[in-house]
Design brief:
Radius of gyration of chain A: 21 Å
Largest sheet of chain B: 4 strands, antiparallel
Number of strands of chain A: 8
Oligomer: heterodimer
Mean pLDDT of chain B: 84
Strand content of chain A: 5-15%
Distance between the termini of chain A: 19 Å
Strand order of the largest sheet of chain A: 7-6-8
Number of helices of chain B: 8
Chain lengths: 210, 233
């Protein structure tokens, strides 16, 4: 098994191309099917770690404080956190749905953020704890989980629920709602970053072959 | 390797459907994770750069995708018939909402924008995904060479929009979490939401397990040179 260093294959149609030297923020596309081959991400690179740490802070706020608060006519208050909502789903016998919501909005975003922060700090910055197995697993985890992190979909769900509830009672947005908004924004910014380029920096791979 | 020199450079403007050499034809396998190209790959080899399993095509792609799509079709029926949310007010009759009745409620109460968003995410997107995936599977099995570029674009759209169908699941989760107030009203999730969540997960898994490269493989099947480089994985 030998590596072919200066070629790249399209992920969607298998067409092979010579790698281009990409300028700042340039993107290479497949000539045949139009899929993206490679994108230059040097510009984003240095912002990723601070954004990921900011994301982690927003994550904590989003899960500790209530998302929506209800003020009922009789002077009753009710508020819901995400974890509380998942627990009441489980209490209603909806284990599958509860697990799905738990995974897509609570577990996976956390795993993804922690894996990314680990990748960007220990192996690359401090040059320790970078055992290839953990390094590779973290990198793959980030990519595999990508379609299953649904914070921005959840945010739209909060807005829909908000409008639904306005007919029943006075609804107040909680602190966590703003934190979720920030988290969705930060996750999008952070994971427009491609963990692939970490392999390049780790293995000292020269981008355009010889 | 001489073949390397004859390969075209990658284009910086999107596809025009021109014929090209494929990795399979050149006897190379691309790592699904880090996109490194390898030659002389044997079965069960792993990428030496990132450790991902190397396969010429996603293993059992058509069979797995069919199974997931058929399962999603089956779940689609209860997802739309059974109630997704049951509201029990302190006084008065309990109200059962299906996916559709929730949309109609928004429409009638004047939130047309929201009705449109929910209609798209909960009704159009799952149906569109199932229709497109079925069409893609049939076209691959028929070795169809027609509309390849269009099908490539449809696949990309399906892969991106799938997750937005989870919208209704999150709405029900929040309503259940928020309205558990004795003496006012309680909201319970209905069986429909579990079926609906299953449709979303199954169609997402189906679009992940489908290998779009299979669509383009038919262009390789010229007489005399078919299957010449089917190795690896």
């Amino acid at each position: 098994m030998r590596e072919v260093p200066d070629l790249i294959a399209c992920e969607e149609c298998d067409a092979v191309y010579r790698r281009l030297t990409l300028g700042r923020s340039e993107v290479a596309f497949c000539r045949r099917c139009g899929a993206e081959l490679e994108r230059d991400r040097r510009a984003q690179r240095k912002h990723v770690l601070p954004l990921a740490i900011a994301g982690l802070c927003m994550y904590l706020i989003a899960h500790v404080f209530p998302i929506l608060e209800l003020e009922l006519r009789s002077g009753l208050f009710s508020h819901a956190t995400l974890i509380g909502s998942v627990r009441s789903l489980r209490g209603e016998g909806m284990l599958f749905v509860a697990l799905l919501v738990l995974a897509t909005t609570i577990l996976f975003p956390l795993i993804q953020l922690l894996a990314l922060i680990y990748l960007l700090t220990f192996p690359i910055r401090f040059r320790r704890f970078g055992h290839p197995t953990t390094f590779n697993l973290s990198g793959r985890l980030i990519q595999v989980l990508r379609p299953w992190v649904m914070v921005e979909v959840f945010l739209l769900g909060v807005i829909v629920a908000f409008v639904k509830l306005t007919s029943m009672a006075t609804v107040l947005p909680g602190i966590a709602l703003w934190a979720f908004g920030a988290l969705a924004f930060l996750l999008t910014a952070v994971f427009s970053f491609d963990p692939r380029c970490l392999y390049i920096s780790r293995y000292g791979y020269k981008k355009q072959g010889k | 390797m001489p073949a390397n020199r004859t390969v075209q450079p990658a284009s910086q403007s999107p596809g025009s459907g021109v014929p090209v050499k494929t990795a399979a034809k050149l006897g190379m396998v691309s790592c699904p994770h880090c996109a490194t190209l390898w030659e002389d790959v044997k079965a069960h080899d792993r990428c030496r750069r990132c450790g991902a399993g190397l396969h010429l095509r996603k293993p059992d792609s058509l069979r797995r995708t069919w199974a997931l799509v058929i399962a999603a079709y089956i779940m689609y029926v209860p997802a739309n018939i059974l109630p997704v949310m049951i509201t029990v007010p302190f006084l008065g009759k309990e109200q059962q909402d299906t996916i559709m009745s929730g949309i109609i409620y928004f429409w009638n109460s004047g939130s047309w924008g929201l009705a449109l968003i929910v209609f798209t995410a909960s009704f159009l997107v799952p149906l569109f995904k199932l229709a497109v995936l079925t069409q893609l599977l049939i076209a691959v099995q028929d070795h169809s060479k027609r509309h390849l570029l269009l099908r490539a674009k449809l696949y990309r759209v399906v892969a991106v929009i799938g997750r937005w169908s989870m919208l209704d699941v999150f709405v029900v989760t929040l309503m259940t979490g928020l309205i558990q107030i004795k003496g006012f009203a309680t909201v319970h999730p209905g069986e429909g939401i579990a079926a609906f969540a299953a449709v979303v997960v199954l169609t997402m898994l189906a679009s992940i397990s489908f290998d779009p490269r299979l669509m383009w493989d038919v262009t390789e099947h010229e007489p005399g040179r078919s299957h010449e480089s089917r190795r690896g994985g």
